[in-house]
Each structure stands twice: as structure tokens, then as C-alpha cells.
Amino acid sequence: MGSRRGDDAAGHLWGAMQPDESVLVERSKGRDLSAFNQIVERYQAHVFNLAARILGDRTAAEDVAQETFISAFRAIDGFRGGSLRAWLLRIASNRSYDSLRSSKRRSENSLDESLENPSFQPATKDPSPEQLALRGELRDEIQNAVLSLPADQRAVVVMVDVQGLSYDEASEATGASLGTVKSRLSRARAAVRSHLLERSEL
Questions:
Q1: Are 162 and 117 in contact (CB under 8 A)?
Q2: Whole-number Å distance between alpha carbons of 36 and 33
């Protein structure tokens, strides 16, 4: 009995240390900055990485990430449930598109090394210098291929293939239908594959 009470107490303490997301949202709606900062900590990497891969510019992505969370805090009363991550990424993608339109930015520069996607890197044990060099070239070509995509395709392929969102979450995040998301993703993957096949030495 005592053990069970101890487990319950420990569980209660853990719940207090790791607030449920819905609790953080409700507290944020009450303008609780501490609660909203915990949301920022959970999702800032997702937001920044999406913006960086859409824009191809680290500095611009930092600005978009900051604007995203400012907008989210102001609009949190309008969040009616569903995927909070998808809701935040939708704001981030819209802000990124606005940035692209306003600056007519050409996403030609490869992304900062900190934005590398580990899932794109082949797993080998104790790679040789030659393998490391080829891996770096492949990573750069994948980045270039992604950056060459239209912004809407780029957003979807990053959300699904890099950040692991489901099709439904990507649909919610982009405001596009499920069929449109699948179509954009298919075209994006084909374009990346074609880009890499043209460089068959990699």
C-alpha cells in the first residue's frame, strides 16, 4: 500500500515536472509566459529547421523562428486542439513564404552544417577518408536538391522526410489537402532522386 502511494506520488511529481501539452496551452492562453516558454523549448528546433530548409538562410530562419513564436503567443487563443507541432509549423511555413516573397530570396547557398539531417547520411562503421568525403558530397547534393525545389514541395518533404510528420500533420501544417500533400511529396522525392541520379558518382 505504501509502495503504491509512493508510486502515485512519484508519478504526480513527474507529471508536475513534465506538464501535459494541453496544460501548457491553457496556461499560455492565460498569458503565462513561463508555460509558453516551455512550448518554445519543445518546438524551437522543429520551427527553426523548417524555416532554414525553406529559406536556405540561417539568419533569415532565426528571424522567422522568432516571428513564429511571437505570432503563436498572440494567436494561442485561436488554437482549438489537434497537433500543436503542426499548428506551429504552419505559422513557420507561412512566415517563410512571406520572407521569400518579400526578399525574392534565391535559395542557392547550402545549409549550415548544424542543419544536417542524420537520416540522409549512410551509416557505416569506421568510414575511410574516401567514404567520409563522398558522404559529405552526397549530403551537400541532397541539400542542394532540396533547396532547388519549389517552396511548397520543399516544406512538405522537410516536414515528412526530415521531421517525421505524418501526412495528416503535414496537411494541417500546410493547409493543403491530404491529396495535395502526397502529390507534392511525390514530386519532391522524384526531383531529389533525379538530381542525385545525374550525379551517379555519388
A1: yes
A2: 5
Task: Please compute the mean of the pLDDT values over residues 74-95 and round it to a whole number.
Answer: 92
Nearest Cα neighbor of 64 from 111, 34, 33, 99 is: 99
- What is the C-alpha to C-alpha distance for residues 152 and 85, in angstroms, rounded to an integer? 18
Q: What is the mean pLDDT of residues 28-47?
A: 94
Largest CA distance in the chain: 68
- Per-residue pLDDT, averaged over 127-151, amounts to 70
List the grid coordinates of 98.
512571406
Answer whether 86's CB lies under 8 Å from 170's CB: yes
For residue 37, give the amino acid letter.
N
Q: Give the residue from 34, 168, 21, 8 showing the smallest Cα distance to 90.
A: 168
Alpha-helical segments (H) within the chain: 2-17, 21-29, 33-55, 58-75, 84-103, 129-147, 151-157, 167-174, 178-197
What amino acid is encoded at 18 in this protein? Answer: Q
pLDDT band at 113 (very low <50, low <70, confident <90, very high): very low
Reported residue count of the chain is 202
CA 35 to the chain's CA centroid: 21
Rounded Cα distance between 128 and 124, Å, is 9
- pTM score, whole prediction: 0.66
Give the other-Cβ count within 10 Å of 116's Cβ. Answer: 15
